[in-house]
């Protein structure tokens, strides 16, 4: 009998939030193509869509954005915690700890859109504050007139960001917001199914997101491209990695057996920002070489570029250091996590799968 691993093909829940069609390379958010939303919408509009099930009208959006701005404040004790944690603590661990410290009565079961909005508004503040503290820089207050993506860049740098950078980051954040029953979302839904609070579900999700096989991949993509160094070495480097049983970061996906539509969309966005950049040329060269060699070394596995490859490229192009890659992914994915927690609460039944015991049996008969 084949080993039972990874819950491959197992349906864990029905969902109205998104469709991830791995055979055809489609990603749909509540009836809309995600790649179109990424170009035409703001972060706030798509968050509204995922939480409420429909796009907002003008009045709804205004009220929603007003609440969003009002929610941009960090409790004093969480700021103290950000100052207290040792400098070498990885940013994802800081994020997880800070989010868990938000666990107050305001986030108790049952979860609500108001709770989801409040924590989504706070996540970029945690990341930006900690990043600036780590780098000995003064903290920057949020700027009310800026949208979510622009405000995040502003709080990191202290400079009003270029429109092209905001557009590119928004596209990435929207495409990163939601992706069906991925590992972190599943972790969050499992916690939520116990009727634990939204904050507990999110800290579990952040823990899952941190791993290099999930949200940690973009940082590894940069490391891989740095190790390859130039186009001439790409093929040898990839061959040697695959011959040693290594993985090419930013390639392969459990669900997509064709091109990841998020990678396609982000390739175009990055190309607009970085067409002259030699690093981007190298990335495009490595992508083509990797796809060819993955087919040679792993025939039939259908391994293509995933979202993380171009997530790394886009974040690099807008000047984010690699330490911020996975936290930035989390700033986006918190919307999907909380949409799933809300959905789980609405239909809740505790997750309790079975395991197959493969250990030894006692040699003695059970005593009566
Ligand atoms: N490089 C080399 N070989 C690979 C890769 C890769 N990136 N991905 C899968 N394979 C091979 C793997 O070695 C295995 O070969 P064999 O059949 O000879 O043992 C086969 O393809 C199937 O791999 P698997 O590990 O069973 O696939 P999975 O569905 O369990 O894993 C994955 C999916 C994304 C973890 C994996 O493709 C991977 O490790 N990719 C690199 C890390 C990465 O880019 N992660 C970001 C994923 S996208 C964002 C997200 O959803 O979180």
UniProtKB/TrEMBL annotation:
Active site: 253, 308
InterPro entries given in the database record: Citrate_synth-like_lrg_a-sub, Citrate_synth-like_sm_a-sub, Citrate_synthase, Citrate_synthase_AS, Citrate_synthase_bac-typ, Citrate_synthase_sf
GO molecular function, one term: citrate synthase activity
PROSITE patterns in the cross-refs: CITRATE_SYNTHASE
Pathway: Carbohydrate metabolism; tricarboxylic acid cycle
Keyword rRNA-binding in annotation: no
Keyword Nucleotide-binding: no
CDD domains for the chain: BsCS-I_like
Superkingdom in the source lineage: Bacteria
Keywords: Transferase
GO BP field: carbohydrate metabolic process; tricarboxylic acid cycle
GO cellular component: cytosol
Catalysed reactions, as listed in the record: oxaloacetate + acetyl-CoA + H2O = citrate + CoA + H(+)
NCBIfam families, sorted: PRK12350.1
Family, similarity comment: Belongs to the citrate synthase family.
Protein name: Citrate synthase
Organism of provenance: Paenibacillus cremeus
């Amino acid at each position: 009998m084949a080993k039972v691993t990874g819950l491959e093909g197992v349906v864990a829940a029905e969902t109205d939030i998104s469709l991830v069609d791995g055979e055809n390379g489609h990603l749909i958010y509540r009836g809309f193509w995600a790649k179109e939303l990424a170009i035409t919408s703001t972060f706030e509009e798509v968050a509204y869509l995922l939480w409420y099930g429909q796009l907002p009208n003008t009045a709804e959006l205004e009220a929603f954005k007003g609440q969003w701005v009002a929610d941009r404040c960090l409790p004093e004790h969480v700021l103290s915690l950000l100052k207290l944690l040792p400098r070498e603590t990885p940013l994802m661990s800081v994020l997880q700890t800070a989010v868990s410290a938000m666990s107050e009565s305001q986030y108790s079961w049952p979860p609500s859109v108001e709770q989801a909005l409040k924590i989504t508004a706070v996540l970029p503040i945690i990341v930006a504050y900690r990043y600036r503290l780590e780098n000995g820089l003064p903290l920057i207050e949020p700027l009310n007139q800026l949208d979510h993506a622009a405000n995040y860049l502003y709080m990191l740098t202290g400079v009003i960001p270029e429109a092209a950078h905001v557009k590119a980051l928004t596209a990435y954040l929207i495409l990163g917001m939601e992706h069906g029953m991925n590992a972190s979302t599943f972790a969050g839904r499992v916690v939520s199914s116990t009727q634990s609070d939204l904050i507990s579900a999110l800290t579990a999700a952040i823990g899952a997101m941190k791993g290099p096989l999930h949200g940690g991949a973009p940082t590894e993509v940069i490391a891989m491209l740095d190790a390859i160094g130039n186009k001439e070495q790409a093929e040898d480097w990839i061959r040697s990695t695959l011959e040693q049983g290594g993985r090419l970061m930013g390639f392969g996906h459990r669900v997509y057996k064709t091109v990841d539509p998020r990678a396609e969309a982000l390739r175009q966005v990055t190309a607009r920002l970085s067409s002259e950049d030699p690093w981007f040329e190298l990335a495009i060269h490595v992508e083509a070489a990797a796809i060819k060699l993955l087919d040679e070394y792993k025939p039939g596995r259908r391994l293509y570029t995933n979202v993380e490859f171009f997530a790394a490229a886009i974040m690099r192009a807008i000047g984010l250091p690699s330490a911020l890659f996975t936290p930035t992914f989390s700033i986006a994915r918190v919307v999907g996590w909380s949409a799933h927690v809300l959905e789980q609460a609405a239909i809740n039944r505790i997750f309790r799968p079975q395991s197959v015991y493969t250990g030894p049996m006692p040699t003695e008969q059970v005593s009566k």
